[in-house]
Amino acid sequence: MRLLLSLDDIESALAKLPGWKRDGAELVKTYRFDSYMIGIEFVNLLAKAAESMNHHPDLYVGWCKVVVRLTTHSAGGITLLDIQMAQQAERGYRSLEVSHESTHAA
Predict the structure, then answer these.
(1) Pick from 42, 9, 36, 10: nearest CA to 23
(2) Are 55 and 85 in contact (CB under 8 A)?
(3) Global pTM exceeds 0.70
């Protein structure tokens, strides 16, 4: 079983994760995209990372946005897995930004 993080540990991690916030026992961020399909690309990237980590976020897809909610259900709150999944989300988002910026520049 995963150990819950202290509030200090969570706040320290959030300081390095722009736009993420704690909402009770969850970490939450809304990502915005230039198009609906780029948001879907992001969901697919996140789904692959989630499968490899065996840690699956709640994802809510809207028009040009994706809301990511992370918690470790088995532990009843936020664990290191949630921080690591948030870091994966950030890397995936940055890779899409770079990918689509170079497409627009071409």
Answers:
(1) 10
(2) yes
(3) yes
Amino acid (1-letter code) at residue 36: Y
Q: pLDDT by residue for the chain (106 residues), tens digit each?
A: 689 999 999 999 999 999 999 999 999 999 999 999 999 999 999 999 999 999 999 999 999 999 999 999 999 999 999 999 999 999 999 999 877 765 554 4
How far is CA 104 from each of CA 34, 39, 49, 78, rounded to the nearest angstrom? 11, 16, 26, 38
What's the CA gap between 100 and 72, in Å, rounded? 32
In order of their start, the domains of the chain are 7-99 (3.30.1360.20)
Give exposure, 16-37, as e/b (b: 16+ Cβ within 10 Å): eeeebebeeebbbbebebeeee
Write the CB contacts of 10 (distance below 8 Å, at least 6 apart in sequence): 22, 27, 78, 83
What is the C-alpha end-to-end distance of the chain, expressed in Å? 48
